[in-house]
């Protein structure tokens, strides 16, 4: 509480927080501005029913559910970012840009913006065609004019959200894109608790409701523990003499997180699992309906879901973290791991440790992501609450909250105020530097 009170003593941090809240408020207002020509009530039958649109609806904060001007949400930007990140591994020119520092980062960011606009145009056109084919338009809507207006509206909405996210990152506090997703998910929390309270008799009455709240707190604690957990690999730097001075001889460490892939594996796995159900909405064949049903519920669904999460965790970690590059950078800086030869032996050592950590992280992600389905099927927990406090949604909520608190902590500690997380180093109560 002392750390929170110190926020009022820092005008810069206070302005950043208020600026962030104001822009998130603008985003939430935009969620309720409808796109012309669409019957939102008729749209419910397409979005519901365990389809891939549920993921889009979650990331858009319910904007797709009402088909507002922000219906595409920030998903095109996320998709473009992931595509660029994967391309940097296979395209040499992009890999060189990534290693150029700040200038290369700005160039990749510009490519991401172009990719966002392109994906938003394609997705907007596909959605407009799908809406017309499903007969969810208002009387008199449709045709080329509807396609053009819908594509322009949805693309402009995505670009506006992208701009809001960049403004929050630059002038606010925290990562703007992540906070937009965070705000959309958190907005559904009150409705989830309301549904749980009204249906508490299905899972034990008042005692069951309190037990559920306690369980949610426990899950949040477990996620915080695993997201902060990492393995420290000791690094020793050799001593060298430059002129008459002795440099080096320091000890450091290389931190390897248990969950280096973040929430990407659950998103990829959920998208693949829900893809057959989405196709079945548009292609009404018995075989496809049976396949969609098998992959939507039951133990086969859970087993395949867990397998995909583990696979994508290893895949994405291998794409984003290269032990050979890390070992080479350590060698160039004159460092080495005690007892391990520099070069390929160091890379193999890091890769062996990373593989073990990734397995633990993959199992942790799989457990968190299957919790909602277990709570719904075995204990009768409302879908609205279980989907918010489990799986991808809860991982995003906790991860973004931790990142934002960490940045606030940095601002406080840089002015020598006591931090929010109770850091042991440099505690000063209300004394400016």
TL;DR?
Helix content is 70%, strand content 5%. It has 433 residues and is mostly helical.
Question: Main attributes?
Answer:
globular, 19 helices, mainly alpha, 433 residues, Preprotein translocase SecY subunit
Please explain how this structure is put together.
Helix 2 crosses helix 10, helix 6 crosses helix 7 (92-98) and helix 16 packs across helix 17. A 3-stranded antiparallel β-sheet has the order 4-1-5. A two-stranded antiparallel ribbon has the order 2-3. The chain has helices spanning 2-5, 11-30, 40-47, 53-59, 63-66, 75-90, 92-98, 102-134, 143-171, 176-186, 189-198, 205-228, 264-282, 286-296, 298-320, 323-332, 344-379, 383-388, 391-414, and strands spanning 230-237, 240-242, 245-247, 251-257, 335-336. The chain has a domain at 1-187: SecY subunit domain (Preprotein translocase SecY subunit, Orthogonal Bundle). The chain is globular. It has 19 helices and 5 strands. A hairpin with a 2-residue loop joins strand 2 (240-242) and strand 3. 70% of the residues lie in helices and 5% in strands. The chain is mainly α.
């Amino acid at each position: 509480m002392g750390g929170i009170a110190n926020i009022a003593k820092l005008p810069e941090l206070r302005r950043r927080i208020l600026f962030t809240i104001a822009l998130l408020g603008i985003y939430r207002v935009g969620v309720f501005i409808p796109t012309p020509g669409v019957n939102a009530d008729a749209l419910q039958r397409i979005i519901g029913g365990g389809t891939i649109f549920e993921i889009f609806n979650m990331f858009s904060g319910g904007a797709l559910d009402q088909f507002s001007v922000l219906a595409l949400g920030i998903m095109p930007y996320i998709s473009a970012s992931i595509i660029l990140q994967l391309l940097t591994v296979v395209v040499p020119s992009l890999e060189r840009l990534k290693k150029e520092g700040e200038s290369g980062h700005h160039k990749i960011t510009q490519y991401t913006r172009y990719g966002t606009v392109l994906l938003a145009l394609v997705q907007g056109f596909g959605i407009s065609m799908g809406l017309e084919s499903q007969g969810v338009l208002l009387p008199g809507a449709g045709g080329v004019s509807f396609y053009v207006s819908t594509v322009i509206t949805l693309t402009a909405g995505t670009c506006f959200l992208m701009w809001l996210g960049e403004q929050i990152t630059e002038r606010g506090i925290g990562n703007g894109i992540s906070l937009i997703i965070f705000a959309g998910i958190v907005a559904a929390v009150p409705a989830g608790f309301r549904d749980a309270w009204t249906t508490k008799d299905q899972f034990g009455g008042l005692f069951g409701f309190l037990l559920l709240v306690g369980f949610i707190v426990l899950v949040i604690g477990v996620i915080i523990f695993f997201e902060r957990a990492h393995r420290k690999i000791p690094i020793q730097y050799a001593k060298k003499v430059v002129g008459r001075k002795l440099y080096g001889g320091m000890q450091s460490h290389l931190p390897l997180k248990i969950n280096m892939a973040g929430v990407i594996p659950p998103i990829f796995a959920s998208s693949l699992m829900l893809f057959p159900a989405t196709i079945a909405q548009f292609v009404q064949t018995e075989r496809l309906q049976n396949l969609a049903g098998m992959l939507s519920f039951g133990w086969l669904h859970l087993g395949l879901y867990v397998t995909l999460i583990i696979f994508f965790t290893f895949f994405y970690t291998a794409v984003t973290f290269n032990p050979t590059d890390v070992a080479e950078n350590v060698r160039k800086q004159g460092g080495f791991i005690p007892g391990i030869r520099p070069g390929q032996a160091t890379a193999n050592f890091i890769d062996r440790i990373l593989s073990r950590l990734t397995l633990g992280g993959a199992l942790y992600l799989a457990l968190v992501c299957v919790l909602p389905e277990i709570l719904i099927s075995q204990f009768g927990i409302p879908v609205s609450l279980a989907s918010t406090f489990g799986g991808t949604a809860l991982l995003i909520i906790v991860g973004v909250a931790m990142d934002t608190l960490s940045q606030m902590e940095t601002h406080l500690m840089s002015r020598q105020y006591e931090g929010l997380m109770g850091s042991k180093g440099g505690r000063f109560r209300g004394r400016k530097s």
